[in-house]
Every structure is written in structure tokens, then in C-alpha cells.
Amino acid sequence: MAETKRIMISVPQSLLDEVDAFLSKEKCNRSEFIRRAMIEFIKERKKAQLREQLRAGYAAMAEINRQLSEEGIAEDLASLRYYERLLVESETSG
To answer: Hey, where are the domains in the chain?
Structure first.
């Protein structure tokens, strides 16, 4: 296990009472509870940050995809007009 450091924290008595009641049922001590709580807190924060990064990435990709689809539609329409013009020319010359 990694080196441990002793810290002091201040919490309201009502919170400490609630934690102690919980811990008596869980067969866990305060130190272990605080370690687990810190790990879970950091893990949840990292998940939230990742979700935000993904949301921002998807939003950016949505704009890029919209632009690409508009360019693709414009090219498809140009190709269709060219094809139709060739059809009309072949019908009138034949």
C-alpha cells in the first residue's frame, strides 16, 4: 500500500453521527470510509469531466457533419443537374 498521511478534517457533529451510524452497520472505520469516499468523489468527477468533453466533442462533430452533408448535397445536386442536362441534350440531338 502507498505511504499514508494523517490529516485532520472538520465536519458538523450531525454528519459525524450519521457517518458513525452508517459505519457501525458496515463494519468499517472512519479512515477507510473517508478513503473510499475520496476515491469515489474523484472517480465521479473524472466521469463528469469525460462526459462534458464527449458532449463538447459530439457538438463539434455535429457542426462538422452538418457542413459536410450540405457540401455533399450541393455536389449531388450539381451532378444531378449535369446528368439531366446530358439526358436532355441526348434526347434533342437524337
So the answer is: 13-93
